[in-house]
Amino acid sequence: MPTFKLDGQEIPFEPGDTVIRAAYRQGIEIPHYCWHPGLSIAANCRMCLVEVRSGRQMALPILKWDAKKNEYVEATKPKLQPACQLAAQEDMEIFARSDHALKAQESTQEFLLLNHPVDCPICDQAGECKLQDYWLSSQTKLKRKRTEPVHKPKAVRFGPTIVYDAERCIMCTRCIRFCDEVAKDHVLDMRERGNVNEIVVSPGRELDHDYTLMTEHVCPVGALTSKDFRFKARVWFLKSAPSVCTGCATGCNSWVDYDPRYQRVYRLRPRDNEAVNQYWMCDDGMMTYKRFHEDRILAGRVRTSGRTSEVSRDDAVRAAARVLEKIEPGRLAVVLSAQASSEDNYVLAKLAADHFETDRFYLTARAPWRGDDILRHPDANPNRAGATMASKGEPRSMEQLVEDIERGDVGAVLSLGPDTDLSEAELAPLANLVSEGVGTAAHVNLTANAGALTSSASVVVPVASVAETSGTFVNAKGVAQQFKKALQAPGDIQPAWLTLVEIGRHLGWEIDWRRLGDVRTAMPKPLPPSSETTSTEPSAAPAE
Q1: Terminus of the chain with fewer CB atoms < 10 Å: N or C?
Q2: Rounded alpha-carbon distances, angstroms, from residue 328 to 346, 359, 461, 501
Q3: Contact (Cβ atoms closer than 8 angstroms) between residue 481 and residue 309
């Protein structure tokens, strides 16, 4: 592979690469604002100017202050070039840290801060702001301007999710290019020139497409802010865990940003994976973090004689075992979940096959949502493929489960997750299911959140949410992707796979799985990446 030198370091590059992209791939950041790896090149911020030494580089005439002569004298300096626009060529010698390049970065930084308000203490971007970062690395000088800064509109409502502050805007045009090139909606543009220009919304429109939060996310400063995250947390208090979006079958890679002090997730951000989601996520996917905390099941529930009472998690496990221990072989219906991890589904399927000798596998999933040709997959479930793999065939639908119960073919149900595309009324046969051997309602549900399937259960056992455990999702293209635990599960709640192992022990199921690695070792190999994409699998999740 051809290489060039950047500040003395050999940088490999691919045909068509620019200098900044090749450096970016090697983990080297050349200061920049307007450049983004997923957007077209604008080259308007001039922060990425670098010096190219070739022996025949252009020289610009300048006036330079001579302290000895106490006057300006004629001199020259090399013509700097924007690294975002400069095509990489073999054996180039480039300097982003030379005196001339550093001086250019300092001057650009000072220019961008001339009219910038000093409102870092109340700005949501504080702690992850490029203006702050580059001031420390490229300027570190007090503002020399003493005149009143130019004032512009503040707290402008761009739409239902985004607020704009024109005084903070550095006109990088990332938001405009994202809407045009990725969201395919020319809803933003720039008006005026010089120090009075600003970003505006098209007349009669709002910023209301399915990728508005990504429009905010690409902003390198605090000009665009999300109404959902605004004034809720400081980023320096947040930790991040690699995860996979639960919104749909695309399986967008994400970061879970959480505050370990409160064990609470505050937002999701896209995690770069050019083979799956590139650098993006949709609005609905970024808002799925709310499911981690809403309608949580934190205690067991047992329904007897039509009355439901809360019990401890351990009592719920024992109650589940009592319901299941008298079920005749082959009479148990097992409901896998397209929302649960492959590990959870695998352990449930193995318990059913080994101990209950049943092949009655059904699949519960959320109803389809509106897809698009950008990221959103019509299947609103992250792991339909993984659940299907666990059943070793095509699992039956929930409608078929209801029909089988009404025919009397099913004596009890063991289900995973709260979500289903059927209503509570449609699940009435499931809620009224009474096993002859048990003599009571016989539907055991393992779930982290309340839902229609949970409401029809006679025994509900609380389990950890996706944010509280590690696991694997297989997306619609067959790519297996791991996510890692971010939060500690409340109280003594455990992951679903470990809870199932515990229920199995009460039933006499002899299996010694204590760590997630034990389950993964026993699982068959996941589907290989499809021919259309590949995925770099992250390192194994920590033991739980």
Answers
A1: N
A2: 22, 13, 22, 20
A3: no
H/E segment holding residue 71: strand 71-78
With CA atoms as reference, report the closest residue to 416 among 385, 387, 375, 379. Answer: 387
What residues contact 480, with CB distance under 8 A and at least 6 apart?
Answer: 342, 386, 472, 473, 474, 526, 527, 535, 537
99-112 vs 130-138: helix crossing angle, rounded to 10: 140
Beta strands in 13-58 (DSSP E): 49-53
With H, G, I as helix, E, B as strand and everything else as coil, classify residue 251.
Answer: coil
pLDDT of residue 306: 75
- Radius of gyration of the chain, Cα coordinates, nearest whole angstrom: 29
State the Cα–Cα distance between residues 481 and 273, nearest whole angstrom: 11
Structural contact between residues 46 and 108, judged by C-beta atoms closer than 8 angstroms? yes
Q: What is the mean pLDDT of the chain?
A: 91
Residue recorded with tokens 């994400």: 254
Tokens in use for 522?
A: 């026993």
CA 455/CA 4 separation, integer angstroms: 63
- Taking the whole predicted model, whether its pTM rises above 0.85 is answered as yes
Q: What is the DSSP string of 421-481?
A: SS-TTTTHHHHT-B-TTT-SB-EEEEESB--HHHHT-SEEEE---GGGS-EEEE-TTS-EE
Tokens of 124: 């949501």
Strand-pairing partners, residue 259, are: 264
Nearest alpha carbon to residue 33 among 220, 279, 272, 222 = 220
**pLDDT score of 433:** 81
Question: CA-CA distance, 157 to 159, in Å (whole number)?
Answer: 6
Angstrom distance (rounded) from CA 212 to CA 285: 12
Amino acid at site 75: A
Nearest to 296 by CA among 153, 464, 178: 464
Average pLDDT, integer, range 386-396: 92
3-state DSSP call for residue 215?
Answer: helix
Element (H, E) at 317: helix 313-324
Give the single-character DSSP code of 134. H
Q: Using CA atoms, how far apart are residues 354 and 501, in angstroms rounded to an integer?
A: 12
Contact criterion met (CB below 8 Å) for 249 and 492? no
49 touches 104 (CB < 8 A): yes
CA distance 487 to 465: 9
Residue with tokens 């896209």: 270
DSSP state of 120: G
The CA–CA distances, whole Å, from 27 to 11, 23, 127, 273, 274 equal: 10, 6, 20, 15, 15
The 8-class DSSP code of residue 273 comes to B
Give Cα 489 to chain centroid, integer Å: 20
The domains located in the chain, with CATH, are 3-102 (3.10.20.740), 300-522 (3.40.50.740)
Q: Quick: pLDDT tens for 75-118.
A: 988 999 999 999 999 989 999 999 999 999 999 999 999 999 98
Closest CA to 491 of 531, 462, 456: 462
Tokens for 355, please give them.
Answer: 């101990």
Query: Hey, what are 119's tokens?
Result: 């409102």
Strand partners, 471: 483
